Amino acid sequence: MDATEVAFFGDPQMMARGILVNGRGQRFIAEDTYGGRIGQASLIQQDNTAYLVMDMAAHEEALATETSTPYFRQPPTWAAETVDELESDMGLPAGSLAATVQMYNRHAATGTDPLLHKKEQWVRPLTGPVAAWDMRGFTAGFTLGGLRTDVESRVLHVDGAPIPGLFAAGRCTSGVCAGGYASGTSLGDGSFFGRRAGATAAT
Ligand SMILES: Cc1cc2nc3c(=O)[nH]c(=O)nc-3n(C[C@H](O)[C@H](O)[C@H](O)COP(=O)(O)OP(=O)(O)OC[C@H]3O[C@@H](n4cnc5c(N)ncnc54)[C@H](O)[C@@H]3O)c2cc1C
Predict the structure, then answer these.
(1) How far is the CA of 190 from the centre of ligand 1 (A)?
(2) Which residues in the chain land under pLDDT 70?
(3) pLDDT confidence of residue 68
Protein backbone atom coordinates (compact mmCIF):
# COMPACT_ATOMS: atom_id res chain seq x y z
CA MET A 1 0.00 0.00 0.00
CA ASP A 2 2.84 2.37 -0.77
CA ALA A 3 1.54 3.75 -4.07
CA THR A 4 -1.19 6.22 -4.90
CA GLU A 5 -2.84 7.92 -7.85
CA VAL A 6 -3.23 11.67 -7.32
CA ALA A 7 -5.50 13.43 -9.80
CA PHE A 8 -4.88 17.14 -10.30
CA PHE A 9 -8.04 19.11 -10.99
CA GLY A 10 -6.68 21.76 -13.31
CA ASP A 11 -7.78 22.46 -16.87
CA PRO A 12 -5.06 20.95 -19.12
CA GLN A 13 -5.67 23.65 -21.76
CA MET A 14 -4.88 26.33 -19.20
CA MET A 15 -2.01 24.55 -17.46
CA ALA A 16 -0.14 23.86 -20.70
CA ARG A 17 -0.31 27.56 -21.60
CA GLY A 18 0.77 28.81 -18.18
CA ILE A 19 3.39 27.96 -15.59
CA LEU A 20 2.79 26.00 -12.39
CA VAL A 21 4.81 27.22 -9.43
CA ASN A 22 5.17 26.01 -5.85
CA GLY A 23 5.13 27.97 -2.58
CA ARG A 24 8.62 29.25 -3.38
CA GLY A 25 7.50 30.69 -6.72
CA GLN A 26 9.47 28.03 -8.63
CA ARG A 27 8.36 25.75 -11.44
CA PHE A 28 8.56 22.05 -10.55
CA ILE A 29 7.07 20.07 -13.47
CA ALA A 30 6.35 20.47 -17.19
CA GLU A 31 2.83 21.86 -17.29
CA ASP A 32 1.76 19.75 -20.29
CA THR A 33 2.49 16.42 -18.61
CA TYR A 34 -0.11 13.83 -17.50
CA GLY A 35 -2.34 15.19 -14.73
CA GLY A 36 -1.63 12.18 -12.50
CA ARG A 37 2.07 13.09 -12.49
CA ILE A 38 1.29 16.74 -11.73
CA GLY A 39 -0.91 15.61 -8.84
CA GLN A 40 1.76 13.32 -7.39
CA ALA A 41 4.45 15.98 -7.72
CA SER A 42 2.22 18.65 -6.11
CA LEU A 43 0.98 16.55 -3.21
CA ILE A 44 4.05 14.51 -2.40
CA GLN A 45 6.90 16.88 -3.25
CA GLN A 46 5.38 20.38 -3.02
CA ASP A 47 3.30 20.12 0.16
CA ASN A 48 0.07 20.15 -1.92
CA THR A 49 0.86 23.72 -2.99
CA ALA A 50 0.62 24.81 -6.61
CA TYR A 51 -0.29 28.07 -8.30
CA LEU A 52 -1.05 28.44 -12.00
CA VAL A 53 0.25 31.69 -13.51
CA MET A 54 -0.84 32.90 -16.95
CA ASP A 55 -0.87 36.09 -18.91
CA MET A 56 -4.17 37.39 -20.21
CA ALA A 57 -3.45 36.49 -23.85
CA ALA A 58 -2.80 32.84 -22.94
CA HIS A 59 -5.89 32.77 -20.74
CA GLU A 60 -8.12 34.08 -23.53
CA GLU A 61 -6.64 31.56 -25.94
CA ALA A 62 -7.35 28.72 -23.48
CA LEU A 63 -10.92 29.91 -22.94
CA ALA A 64 -11.49 29.87 -26.69
CA THR A 65 -10.67 26.13 -26.89
CA GLU A 66 -13.16 23.33 -26.54
CA THR A 67 -12.86 21.44 -23.27
CA SER A 68 -14.60 18.43 -21.84
CA THR A 69 -13.98 19.72 -18.32
CA PRO A 70 -15.41 23.26 -18.15
CA TYR A 71 -15.91 22.91 -14.37
CA PHE A 72 -12.13 23.08 -13.97
CA ARG A 73 -12.29 26.68 -15.14
CA GLN A 74 -12.49 29.08 -12.23
CA PRO A 75 -11.92 32.85 -12.20
CA PRO A 76 -8.36 33.78 -11.18
CA THR A 77 -7.57 34.21 -7.49
CA TRP A 78 -5.23 37.14 -8.16
CA ALA A 79 -4.76 39.47 -11.15
CA ALA A 80 -2.17 42.21 -11.54
CA GLU A 81 -0.55 44.52 -14.07
CA THR A 82 2.95 43.15 -13.45
CA VAL A 83 4.65 39.97 -12.23
CA ASP A 84 6.16 41.86 -9.27
CA GLU A 85 2.72 42.99 -8.16
CA LEU A 86 1.29 39.49 -8.59
CA GLU A 87 4.12 37.96 -6.58
CA SER A 88 3.49 40.40 -3.74
CA ASP A 89 -0.31 39.82 -3.80
CA MET A 90 0.26 36.05 -3.65
CA GLY A 91 2.57 36.41 -0.66
CA LEU A 92 5.48 34.69 -2.42
CA PRO A 93 9.07 35.41 -1.35
CA ALA A 94 10.26 38.70 -2.87
CA GLY A 95 11.86 38.16 -6.27
CA SER A 96 10.98 34.44 -6.48
CA LEU A 97 8.20 34.52 -9.08
CA ALA A 98 9.92 37.38 -10.91
CA ALA A 99 13.07 35.24 -11.28
CA THR A 100 11.04 32.24 -12.45
CA VAL A 101 9.19 34.26 -15.09
CA GLN A 102 12.41 35.95 -16.20
CA MET A 103 14.11 32.56 -16.70
CA TYR A 104 11.04 31.07 -18.39
CA ASN A 105 10.68 34.04 -20.73
CA ARG A 106 14.36 34.06 -21.61
CA HIS A 107 14.11 30.60 -23.16
CA ALA A 108 10.48 30.92 -24.27
CA ALA A 109 11.61 33.73 -26.57
CA THR A 110 13.15 30.97 -28.72
CA GLY A 111 10.33 28.48 -28.02
CA THR A 112 12.32 26.26 -25.68
CA ASP A 113 12.02 25.05 -22.09
CA PRO A 114 15.43 23.56 -21.25
CA LEU A 115 14.61 23.26 -17.53
CA LEU A 116 11.47 21.09 -17.71
CA HIS A 117 10.99 20.36 -21.42
CA LYS A 118 7.43 21.49 -21.98
CA LYS A 119 6.53 20.96 -25.64
CA GLU A 120 7.48 23.81 -27.94
CA GLN A 121 3.88 24.40 -29.02
CA TRP A 122 2.96 25.58 -25.49
CA VAL A 123 6.04 27.67 -24.75
CA ARG A 124 5.50 31.41 -25.14
CA PRO A 125 6.80 34.32 -23.01
CA LEU A 126 4.42 35.65 -20.35
CA THR A 127 3.81 39.32 -21.08
CA GLY A 128 1.46 42.10 -20.00
CA PRO A 129 -1.14 41.73 -17.25
CA VAL A 130 -0.89 38.41 -15.41
CA ALA A 131 -3.15 36.32 -13.22
CA ALA A 132 -2.76 33.38 -10.87
CA TRP A 133 -5.04 30.56 -9.75
CA ASP A 134 -4.66 29.13 -6.27
CA MET A 135 -4.53 25.35 -6.87
CA ARG A 136 -3.75 24.37 -3.29
CA GLY A 137 -5.61 21.18 -2.41
CA PHE A 138 -6.82 20.60 -6.00
CA THR A 139 -5.74 16.97 -5.66
CA ALA A 140 -7.63 13.76 -4.92
CA GLY A 141 -6.43 10.22 -5.04
CA PHE A 142 -6.95 6.55 -4.49
CA THR A 143 -4.57 3.78 -3.49
CA LEU A 144 -2.73 1.70 -6.08
CA GLY A 145 -0.97 -0.84 -3.92
CA GLY A 146 -2.36 -4.07 -2.48
CA LEU A 147 -2.27 -7.87 -2.63
CA ARG A 148 0.12 -9.55 -5.03
CA THR A 149 -1.63 -11.79 -7.54
CA ASP A 150 -0.69 -13.95 -10.52
CA VAL A 151 -2.23 -13.77 -14.02
CA GLU A 152 -5.05 -16.10 -12.90
CA SER A 153 -5.88 -13.56 -10.14
CA ARG A 154 -4.79 -15.99 -7.40
CA VAL A 155 -3.48 -14.15 -4.34
CA LEU A 156 0.18 -14.93 -3.66
CA HIS A 157 1.58 -15.70 -0.24
CA VAL A 158 4.69 -13.73 0.75
CA ASP A 159 6.66 -16.86 -0.23
CA GLY A 160 5.32 -16.43 -3.78
CA ALA A 161 2.99 -19.49 -3.83
CA PRO A 162 -0.75 -19.03 -4.61
CA ILE A 163 -3.01 -19.25 -1.56
CA PRO A 164 -5.59 -21.95 -2.40
CA GLY A 165 -9.11 -20.62 -2.94
CA LEU A 166 -8.25 -16.93 -2.54
CA PHE A 167 -8.67 -14.62 -5.55
CA ALA A 168 -8.46 -10.86 -5.88
CA ALA A 169 -8.92 -8.24 -8.60
CA GLY A 170 -9.25 -4.48 -8.82
CA ARG A 171 -7.84 -1.85 -6.53
CA CYS A 172 -7.29 -4.22 -3.58
CA THR A 173 -4.47 -5.75 -5.67
CA SER A 174 -1.14 -4.25 -6.63
CA GLY A 175 -2.32 -4.43 -10.23
CA VAL A 176 -0.86 -3.23 -13.50
CA CYS A 177 -0.47 0.39 -12.45
CA ALA A 178 1.07 0.06 -8.98
CA GLY A 179 4.27 1.77 -10.09
CA GLY A 180 2.48 4.87 -11.39
CA TYR A 181 -0.95 5.58 -12.75
CA ALA A 182 -2.35 5.97 -16.25
CA SER A 183 -6.02 6.87 -16.68
CA GLY A 184 -8.27 3.92 -17.42
CA THR A 185 -6.05 1.21 -16.01
CA SER A 186 -8.20 0.74 -12.88
CA LEU A 187 -11.47 -0.26 -14.55
CA GLY A 188 -9.38 -2.13 -17.11
CA ASP A 189 -7.44 -4.31 -14.71
CA GLY A 190 -10.46 -4.67 -12.37
CA SER A 191 -12.69 -6.10 -15.09
CA PHE A 192 -9.96 -8.10 -16.85
CA PHE A 193 -8.59 -9.79 -13.74
CA GLY A 194 -12.04 -10.09 -12.18
CA ARG A 195 -13.11 -12.15 -15.19
CA ARG A 196 -9.98 -14.30 -14.96
CA ALA A 197 -10.58 -14.86 -11.23
CA GLY A 198 -14.11 -16.07 -11.98
CA ALA A 199 -12.96 -18.33 -14.80
CA THR A 200 -10.17 -19.85 -12.71
CA ALA A 201 -12.42 -20.33 -9.67
CA ALA A 202 -14.98 -22.07 -11.90
CA THR A 203 -12.42 -24.67 -12.96
C1 LIG B 1 -12.54 10.48 -8.93
C2 LIG B 1 -12.16 9.15 -9.54
C3 LIG B 1 -12.03 9.04 -10.91
C4 LIG B 1 -11.67 7.84 -11.49
N5 LIG B 1 -11.56 7.74 -12.85
C6 LIG B 1 -11.24 6.57 -13.42
C7 LIG B 1 -11.14 6.43 -14.84
O8 LIG B 1 -11.34 7.39 -15.59
N9 LIG B 1 -10.80 5.23 -15.34
C10 LIG B 1 -10.55 4.15 -14.55
O11 LIG B 1 -10.25 3.07 -15.05
N12 LIG B 1 -10.65 4.25 -13.20
C13 LIG B 1 -10.98 5.41 -12.62
N14 LIG B 1 -11.07 5.52 -11.25
C15 LIG B 1 -10.70 4.39 -10.44
C16 LIG B 1 -11.76 3.31 -10.43
O17 LIG B 1 -13.05 3.90 -10.39
C18 LIG B 1 -11.59 2.43 -9.20
O19 LIG B 1 -10.23 2.11 -9.03
C20 LIG B 1 -12.37 1.15 -9.39
O21 LIG B 1 -13.74 1.46 -9.44
C22 LIG B 1 -12.10 0.21 -8.25
O23 LIG B 1 -12.90 -0.92 -8.43
P24 LIG B 1 -12.85 -2.09 -7.39
O25 LIG B 1 -13.93 -3.03 -7.80
O26 LIG B 1 -11.47 -2.62 -7.27
O27 LIG B 1 -13.16 -1.43 -6.00
P28 LIG B 1 -14.52 -0.64 -5.46
O29 LIG B 1 -15.26 -0.12 -6.65
O30 LIG B 1 -14.03 0.23 -4.41
O31 LIG B 1 -15.34 -1.88 -4.96
C32 LIG B 1 -15.09 -2.46 -3.69
C33 LIG B 1 -16.42 -2.86 -3.12
O34 LIG B 1 -16.24 -3.60 -1.93
C35 LIG B 1 -17.19 -3.19 -1.00
N36 LIG B 1 -16.67 -3.53 0.33
C37 LIG B 1 -15.70 -2.92 1.05
N38 LIG B 1 -15.51 -3.57 2.22
C39 LIG B 1 -16.37 -4.59 2.22
C40 LIG B 1 -16.63 -5.64 3.15
N41 LIG B 1 -15.96 -5.74 4.31
N42 LIG B 1 -17.58 -6.54 2.85
C43 LIG B 1 -18.26 -6.46 1.68
N44 LIG B 1 -18.04 -5.49 0.75
C45 LIG B 1 -17.10 -4.57 1.04
C46 LIG B 1 -17.32 -1.71 -1.22
O47 LIG B 1 -18.56 -1.22 -0.71
C48 LIG B 1 -17.28 -1.65 -2.74
O49 LIG B 1 -18.55 -1.78 -3.34
C50 LIG B 1 -11.44 6.72 -10.67
C51 LIG B 1 -11.61 6.83 -9.28
C52 LIG B 1 -11.95 8.03 -8.72
C53 LIG B 1 -12.12 8.09 -7.21
Answers:
(1) 9
(2) 1, 68, 70-71
(3) 65
- The pTM for the full model equals 0.82
Question: From the alpha carbon of 140, which atom of ligand 1 is closest?
Answer: 1
Q: How far does the centroid of ligand 1 lie from the alpha carbon of residue 2, in Å?
A: 18
Residue 179, CA distances (Å) to 10, 35, 129, 146 in order: 23, 16, 41, 12
108 exposure class (CB count in 10 Å sphere: 0-12, 13-18, 19+)? buried
The residue whose CA has the least distance to atom 18 of ligand 1 is: 186
- What 8-state DSSP symbol labels residue 157? P
- CA dist 87 → 48, 53, 84, 101, 110 (Å): 19, 10, 5, 11, 25
3-state SS assignment for residue 127: coil
How far does the centroid of ligand 1 lie from the alpha carbon of residue 164, in Å? 25
pLDDT score for 70: 67
